[in-house]
Amino acid sequence: DMEAWYPPGHGDFYQSFANSGLLNEFIDQGKKVCFISNIDNLGATVDLNILNNCLANKYDFIMEVTEKTRADVKGGTLINYEGKLRLLEVAQVPKEHEEDFKSVKKFNVFNTNNLWMRLDAVQGNVDE
């Protein structure tokens, strides 16, 4: 399900990563996991505990989230949609529900856009 792999505006990373040749190059070098973050996330750091968790549990994808604050009104949050965990971005919210989206009580999780992914899983999704 390719829709589960990216929020609006970020979806070209996977195909671009493959098209650039870097995905295959990293896999050929024996690399297992990739960490990416938005360029405007100045607090992004590589947390070796998350990397080790990803490797030990063979997770395909990990998204770092944190508690949402009143300052986090534009970023994404997680929702349960049709039985699946999904990222909901403000751009997807109808105008009449924007105030609900901004609520830290209704949506208490904020997507930091620090993403960890297994390279073989990225390759598998690109090949589909």
How would you describe this protein?
With 128 residues, the protein is an alpha+beta fold. Helix content is 30%, strand content 25%. The chain has five helices and five strands, in the order H-H-E-H-E-E-E-H-E-H. The protein has helices at residues 12-19, 22-28, 48-57, 98-102, 119-127; strands at residues 33-37, 61-67, 77-81, 84-88, 109-118. The strands form two sheets. It has a three-stranded antiparallel beta sheet. A hairpin with a 2-residue loop joins strand 3 (77-81) and strand 4. Helix 2 packs across helix 5. The protein is elongated, with a radius of gyration of 16 Å. The termini are close together.
Topology (elements, then pairings):
Layout: H1 12-19, H2 22-28, E1 33-37, H3 48-57, E2 61-67, E3 77-81, E4 84-88, H4 98-102, E5 109-118, H5 119-127
Antiparallel strand pairs: 1-5, 2-5, 3-4
Helix pairs in contact: 2-5
Features:
alpha+beta, two-stranded antiparallel sheet, 5 helices, elongated
Number of helices: 5
Shape: elongated
Order of helices and strands: HHEHEEEHEH
**Residue-averaged pLDDT:** 86
Low-confidence stretches: none
Distance between the termini: 9 Å
Report strand %.
25-35%
Structural class of the helices, strands and pairings? alpha+beta
Q: What strand line-up does the widest sheet have?
A: 1-5-2
Brief synopsis:
By secondary structure, this protein is an alpha+beta fold. The protein has 5 helices and 5 strands.
